[in-house]
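ingest -> validate -> predict -> emit
validate: passed (alphabet ok, no gaps, 273 aa)
predict: started
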Amino acid sequence: MSAISRLAATSLAALALAGCATGPNANPADPLEPFNRGVSTFNDKLDTYALKPVATVYSDYMPTPVQLAIGNFFSNVSDVYSAANNLLQGKASRAAEDTMRVAINSVIGIGGLIDIATPAGLPKYKEDFGQTMGVWGVPAGPYLVLPLFGPSSVRDTTGMVVDRFMDPTSYISPWYAGLGVQGVRVIDGRAQLLGATSLIEAAALDRYSFLRDSYLQRREYLIHDGNPPKKDEEEDDKGTPSQPSQPSSPAPAEPAMPAAPATPAAPADSKTG
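emit:
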């Protein structure tokens, strides 16, 4: 079964469980929490016993210039579908910049192994089809943890499938060569997150909730290009009058939730250099 088929099957299974996985105290964005926690536990064990050790060896022993070149290559690949998604979102200038990045890095940068575009002043955008659907008003749907891929949502899982069709590495032949390329991509991405995951483990009381809330906040941040609407603005847009503030004792402030890093197994963008 292909990766795309597995993603689709996981989404359908999660939706089928939606009716029986809810509870009175469930997070509205996470009605599949029991299912998601189970998958998250599986992912954590897979990471502990397989991905993290391999990524640590890769980080410690692979020469830094080689790691940089590998990261740049996959970053150049991601610019291909980022350009397509910027165009679909109506951001023509960003799409043109992404296209120029691919052209410059592919030709002058030896197939993307060297990032020439960033020092030349072309910004890097990270657009995907999940964001594109969000820009056009498609709701995220339930939060969903995917085996191996980690935090997602029903909308973003669909977006991952579409992005795979726009990813040039999806068409590498023979199949085992393509599988090897994706394996290197996963290991390189995981190696880039070694420091971030150690920080999460030290800071988060409930790692699952931390990653869920951070992921959902970051997706909103990306969809709105860094300017997500405030809650009161959303209520005003719906025609709900704002309630006047009432004098009361101030509530303790909650610390702002930092943006979530990419999941350990998700394909990561490059190390710029």
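Residues 10-17+31-62+127-230 form one domain.
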